[in-house]
Amino acid sequence: MSIAESRTDSVPAIAVTGSTGHLGGRVATAIAERGEAQTLVVRDASRAPQLAGARVREATYRDGEASRAALEGVQTLFMVSASESADRVDEHRSFIDAAAAAGVRHIVYTSFFGAHPEAVFTLARDHFATEQHIRDSGMSFTFLRNNFYMDFFALLPGEDGVIRGPAGSGRVSAVSRADLADAALAVLIDPSAHSGAVYELTGREALSLDEVARIITQKTGRSVTFHDETLPEAYESRAGYGAPSWQVDAWVSTYTAMAAGEQERITDDIRALTGHDPQTLAEFLD
């Protein structure tokens, strides 16, 4: 069933989470621009975007009762992964259970490229655990395994113009949020056509951080370089933020996953879903 098909009641067929953020906001806006109704599930209704045809419901992933109420009557759920936390998987499980109890038929989940229980990037393990819980829920699903955001890489240089991390010569096929939103919309338009599918969404080039630094320099005029930290240097340079150990591990493993070759593969899933090539970093910076 497509999101364009009419409903016999006042509940929109689709619900979107994360609409106050970059990716979810793009998806919600695109749905509204198609003239479709939707439910925006947000933590704070005052921050929800003002979109035609959108109703707003407050719920957190942790609050199963509120989540179930917000999702009653919804058929397809676009579930943006929760903010990074030590218990994010528990949050996800609570929300997934609420969706199943509410009668949601299909979940489109924003997972991570290379999701695996033994992934070098520690947060990719969380995504794999979430995928498994969705599989076990009995609901139909589509997993969008997004590689690192190109938008993030454009912001990597510090105030001194240096990108620091233990990435070595490893490469990453980073992808823009805009391209990811286009891919998500393509799935949400006709979720049944993508039931059980796992898409690995990447850019169309795999760059080392030396190359990232060179492209940023060329496109912005700011001198940017890459310093390949050792692991001790990486942990020491991030110690001053006072972050918990799980978060520092996540920050550092962003780079070690590149060094291990886990983020370099390129797929054509963006083109297959959207009909257009994903952006390069140079195009993104133009």
Map the helices and strands:
Layout: E1 14-17, H1 22-33, E2 38-42, E3 54-58, H2 64-71, E4 76-79, H3 88-102, E5 106-112, H4 122-137, E6 140-146, H5 150-153, E7 162-165, E8 171-172, H6 177-189, E9 198-201, E10 207-208, H7 209-220, E11 225-228, H8 231-239, H9 245-259, H10 269-274, H11 281-285
Parallel strand pairs: 1-2, 1-4, 2-3, 4-5, 5-6, 6-9, 7-11
Antiparallel strand pairs: 8-10
Helix pairs in contact: 1-6, 2-3, 3-4, 8-9
Explain how this protein is built.
The structure is a single chain. This protein is α/β, with parallel strands linked by helices and 286 residues long. It is built from eleven helices and eleven strands. It has helices at 22-33, 64-71, 88-102, 122-137, 150-153, 177-189, 209-220, 231-239, 245-259, 269-274, 281-285; strands at 14-17, 38-42, 54-58, 76-79, 106-112, 140-146, 162-165, 171-172, 198-201, 207-208, 225-228. α1 (22-33) links the parallel β1 and β2 (38-42). α2 (64-71) packs across α3 (88-102), α3 (88-102) packs parallel to α4 (122-137) and α8 (231-239) packs antiparallel against α9. It is globular and about 55 Å long.
